[in-house]
């Protein structure tokens, strides 16, 4: 009995020298750590729109965004971007959603396809993959509310807490020897545009998350 008590005392003393591991941070926790308490990781359904940063987030001047046609090139392989409604007025995916930090296009009922956003890379278009398989998006996105001067505008999209570095840039998509002029979303555009867009055409935007008619609410972890 004494031996058992002594062994227990040794084990307790040893365990006190080590900190117990903390529970793994949730996507919601990570969003709020980098972007404040008004950030969230799950939300939807919503549509996407771009609004020029020189305008109020509450203005009616936002431009709807849709997934562009598929493009294949040596730099990014096969990819799709977000194009303005003015240059590509076709909504293959009627709504998007944030799911634990991943940005997805809600499955197209007629095709069974889903879309997932890739983690944005500086100086490159903001790209998506369209898949028949289960979606596994990069969990790097958050929505942030209360970013307008009026503090009541639509939520905006952020990458690792950054909502300030999206732009709309003009691109000449070339597929099967056909050129399609599109205005697309680029993250942190640079003069070295890799031939994927015209840097001089770029202007800064916020990416808004506009609730669908059915309504959208942030969802906790």
Would you kindly provide a written description of the structure presented here, covering whatever features stand out?
The protein has 221 residues and is mostly beta strands. It has one domain (23-211). It is 10% helix and 41% strand. The protein has helices at 2-15, 27-35; strands spanning 39-40, 43-52, 63-67, 71-73, 77-84, 96-99, 102-105, 114-117, 124-125, 127-131, 141-144, 155-159, 166-175, 178-187, 198-211. A 7-stranded antiparallel beta barrel has the order 2-3-5-10-8-7-6. The chain is globular. Residues 1-24 have low confidence and may be disordered. Keywords: Signal. It comes from Trametes coccinea (strain BRFM310). Residues 1-19 form the signal peptide. This is Lytic polysaccharide monooxygenase.
Give the arrangement of secondary structure elements.
Elements (H helix, E strand, L loop, with lengths): L1 H14 L11 H9 L3 E2 L2 E10 L10 E5 L3 E3 L3 E8 L11 E4 L2 E4 L8 E4 L6 E2 L1 E5 L9 E4 L10 E5 L6 E10 L2 E10 L10 E14 L10
Antiparallel strand pairs: 1-11, 2-3, 2-6, 2-15, 3-5, 4-5, 5-10, 6-7, 7-8, 8-10, 9-14, 11-12, 12-15, 13-14, 13-15
């Amino acid at each position: 009995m004494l031996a058992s008590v002594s062994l227990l005392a040794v084990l307790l003393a040893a365990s006190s020298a080590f900190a117990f591991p903390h529970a793994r941070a949730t996507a919601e926790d990570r969003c709020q750590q980098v972007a404040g308490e008004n950030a969230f990781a799950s939300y939807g359904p919503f549509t996407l729109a771009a609004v020029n940063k020189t305008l109020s987030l509450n203005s009616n001047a936002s431009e709807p965004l849709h997934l562009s046609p598929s493009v294949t090139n040596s730099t990014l392989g096969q990819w799709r971007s977000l194009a303005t409604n003015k240059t590509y007025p076709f909504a293959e995916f009627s709504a998007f959603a944030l799911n634990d930090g991943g940005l997805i296009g809600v499955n197209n009922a007629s095709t069974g396809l889903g879309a997932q956003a890739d983690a944005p890379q500086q100086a490159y278009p903001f790209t998506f993959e369209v898949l028949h398989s289960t979606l596994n998006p990069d969990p790097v996105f958050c929505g942030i509310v209360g970013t307008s001067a009026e503090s009541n505008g639509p939520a905006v999209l952020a990458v690792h807490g950054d909502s300030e570095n999206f732009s709309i840039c003009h691109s000449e998509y070339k597929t099967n020897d056909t050129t399609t002029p599109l205005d697309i979303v680029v993250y942190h555009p640079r003069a070295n545009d890799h031939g994927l867009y015209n840097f001089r055409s770029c202007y800064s935007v916020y990416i808004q998350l506009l609730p669908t008619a059915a309504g959208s609410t942030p969802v906790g972890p």
